[in-house]
User: What shape does this take?
Amino acid sequence: MENQSQQSISKVGEKYTADQISVLEGLEAVRKRPGMYIGDTSTRGLHHCVYEIVDNAVDEALAGYCSEIKVIIHVDNSVTVVDNGRGIPVDMHPKEKISAAELVYTKLHAGGKFNEEGSAYKVSGGLHGVGAAVVNALSKWVKLEIKKGGNKYQVEFERGVSKYPLKQVSELENKSETGTAVTFKPDNEIFEVHEYNYDTLANRFREMAFLNKGLKISIKDERSEKKDTFHFEGGLVEFVTYLNRAKTPVHKDPIYVSESREDYEVEISMQWTDSYSEVLSGYANAISTPGGGTHLSGFKTALTRVLNNYAKENNLLKGINTNLTGDDMREGLTAIISVKLPELQFEGQTKDKLGNSEVEGIVNSLVGESLKKYFEENPNTAKTIIRKSVDAAAAREAARRARELTRRKSALEIGGLPGKMADCQEKDPALCEIYIVEGDSAGGSAKQGRDRKTQAVLPLKGKILNVEKARYDKMLSNNEIRMFVQALGTGVGKGNFDISKLRYHKIVIMTDADVDGSHIRTLILTLLYRQFPELIEQGYIYIAQPPLYKYKKGRKETYIKDEKSLEEFLVVNSVEDTVISVGGEVIDNEQAMSIIKKYRSYNRTLESYDTHFDTLLLRKIIEDSNLSSELLKDKAKLSTELETLTKYLKSIENESLRNYSFDIEEDKENGTNQVRISVKTTARNKKFKLSSYFLDSAEFADLKNFYDGVKKFTGKKFKIVREKNEAREFDSLSDFSDFIIQDGKQGAYIQRYKGLGEMNPEQLWETTMNPENRTLLQVKIEDTVEADQVFSVLMGDQVEPRRQFVEENALNARNLDV
Assistant: This one.
């Protein structure tokens, strides 16, 4: 079949010789394969661009030259980052013969962090010299301004290429003022999304400010007027206090350690709470190390040694039948371990685990000495921590006895598995999966609908215990949790958990899509995060994703999770085995799909305004008019623009069907003008206003961004050639896009499914449990500090932080079934 397809379509490049090997020069490689440099071209990659520029400013702070960083998100989703560091060098590079500033922004691996002799940076988070150049390559435009040597310099770039050499634009009144300002606009032809999330950026910058004591980082969002300033003279001490805001500390003030040896700096802050979980977060040169590393192992060793010695020397372990372990001592501990060193070594590509072997001994030694001195000077705090550790050891012993009892009962009474559970026949864990189902009713359907060979089902009755508020021994006395632990087979708790005994390598949470189902899913995820984190880290936890659609064409059946995915599926189906050209130039199918996806997103967003704005008018304003909040200030120019708009609208619409009228009126509140618009149609009349608020809104900027990503294709002709050289031409992107979607539907039956709770066993199998059709969402933790905060706030005892969280996120809630 593959050979037939290749023969029926004209072959591309039958000759394959040396002159066909292309070398991507400069920043071309970045634009061609952006994912290699920033991870992806979606939300994560978009925000990563901001981090790269801010990280450069933070490196100036680490070097001792920068005290303030400002980040501004503009209404068009361009971003400005300003720092008061030394300013990027402006002199000519001796070898490259361009200014150092241009070199940094146009050449990969160019920076001040490689030259060991007289290096510009003693300590740095950025190692590879690609950050600024990559952001430049992936931006539609970049404007770089530098204050240095009493002068202000400027250079601009378009898609990675400088428009002109760096030039001096003015002299500074304050000759000692230095710094760098970078404004960049991510390229909509590369990024799939272009709307920055304020909270994502703010959380990152808050963390940076905590880690760099005294550094002030401010962020302002001109789209919504949100703004925050993060400035913590207390540094890590304030960080720990912030992390424990939803917990109850068992001693008043966090313990703080700051020591240095040669070029190594160690800074630690920690505090014990009445929580039953530990939170240890490590950083190396302000880079998060969620995988841990030598700095964390050195800290743990020192803490265990010092606490054990103190307890023995002061006779605090009298009457205790068990030895204290490191886990006992760290129960309820929140600690931040930050090290700064000249040569970072990470294990793996992801920079998530520090590998410098010498750091372990340095941290162990420095922390050990400081903690010993602290406990001797603060005996009450030391005794409180020891008591907390003793209680943890007692609970551990009680839990051990409970486990032993459970093992004996399970062996004698239920053969090692819960009574309600339906196990699978397969014994190889890699081939087995277990569905954790809400309630006996859904459990019954799942048992009937499953594949008995590889799929097990465990129904849980009601809502399980919230382990965020319960100690280990109480958790094990809960019947539903005991059944869960028995079913997994791994045991539970440090020293008892053995991942090699896991019976199922896919653990699927399957609950109803309503409020109760969401709560039960959250309780199960809390249990897994607090007691079985290794299962999440190893990628064994999944959430069932019942599909919304079934696509059937001939004998082919495909299940699709939502409307957006259905549209993408139709596009892929339609462009398969075709040759597509735009304006006579052949493009690959991946690019064609990207163009259609962006154009459909643009149209979907436009259509969402239909109830409160006229979409035909809105389209014209975005695509062809000069209307802006700036134009609203000039009544004469505004009037001329509206006349042009009126003529256009009347030329393409029958007046009996649609009639527009525009009235300019003063907007006293904002000191400008606004336009009152009336649209009469045969169906209804609409009235709305065009104000500076709307034209400056993030929503309007988003529409402009969507169109900007496809604008260069809108005036071109499209041609698609199928097998047997069957060709069709289209005069517009709109016609081509509509054809592709309709063509994807041709000859297919598309069924929309109801909710999970209304499915019988056959439908449950067909849509949600059949490995050939189902979609599963894998649970991953990208930010361990933020994850801990979410569980502590939502599932902990403190009401005020939870109330604040709900108020801040209420508007983000979607599809609530109440």
